[in-house]
Amino acid sequence: MRHRSFLHLATALLGIVFVLFSSACAKKDDVAPAPATTGQLAGTLSPVGSASAVTATAADGRTQSAVPDAITGAFAFTALAPGAYQLRATPVVGFNQPDALLLTVTAGTTTTGNFRLVRDGRIHGTMTWEQNGTTYSAATFYGDITQSFFSLEGNTPFDQAGRSQNVNFVLPFAVRGNATPFTGAGTYPVGTAEYPWAGCQFYTRNGPFDQYTTAYAGRQVGQVVVTRYDLVARVATGTFSYVTFLNLSNSGTPTPDQTITNGRFDITF
């Protein structure tokens, strides 16, 4: 009798152990991660803000886009199928298109690729003014802008008769005389000395031109005000107004002077 009870007890204990072991194995199998089937692309953009988007194009032509972070320049593409991808950045105005990156995505990993954009060396933005009461806007720009020198020229498009005109000013290095050297944001009188000077010009395509300048006024006849000058962000804004006097005429029909008012510029360089 006792022997039979012992057998029953042993059998019951073995059953409990088997159940516990089976349960533990089942739980272990439940939490086992499935093998990864996708990967990621990630990287950074510099300078921050130099591109508006980054696109990843798969070998089959499918494309995804990401917007770089406005503070860090970081971007990422998640859950990408393994394979080859072409990464391209879309530059903002003022930057050149960088070369594409050819990257390979592997399941379960993150592939990195970084962009560094360079400026295109051109001046972009807006420049408007009134000249003897008529409003003009520049379409093309020329200039030389450094830490201690600022020259800017804005040209209107050619009209149907092939005529165009421009306004321009030069804020110089430190020079002799009573000139005001360029030091960044500030007010620069024109006309009191040869520099700083400002001017305007009428010309025709492959034809004569008339040039006016403040350089020989011998008194202040206006000013250029630089309200913002950021050599890191490469941004400059400001205003200008002045009276110019005839310096050179080839048209045969010059006027004594030209009055520039309500001039404004907002450029990147």
Can you give a write-up of this model?
By secondary structure, the protein is mainly beta. The chain has 2 domains: 39-116, Sandwich (Immunoglobulin-like), CATH 2.60.40; 124-268, no CATH class. Helix content is 11%, strand content 49%. The chain is built from 1 helix and 19 strands. It has one helix spanning 2-31, and strands spanning 39-46, 51-58, 63-66, 74-80, 83-91, 101-105, 110-112, 115-116, 124-131, 134-137, 140-145, 150-155, 163-171, 186-190, 197-204, 209-213, 222-230, 235-249, 257-268. The strands form 3 sheets. Strands 9, 10, 11, 12, 13, 14, 15, 16, 17, 18 and 19 form an 11-stranded antiparallel β-sheet that branches. Strands 1, 4, 7 and 8 form a 4-stranded mixed β-sheet that branches. It has a 4-stranded antiparallel β-sheet with strand order 3-2-5-6, with no helix packed on it. Residues 16-21 have low confidence and may be disordered.
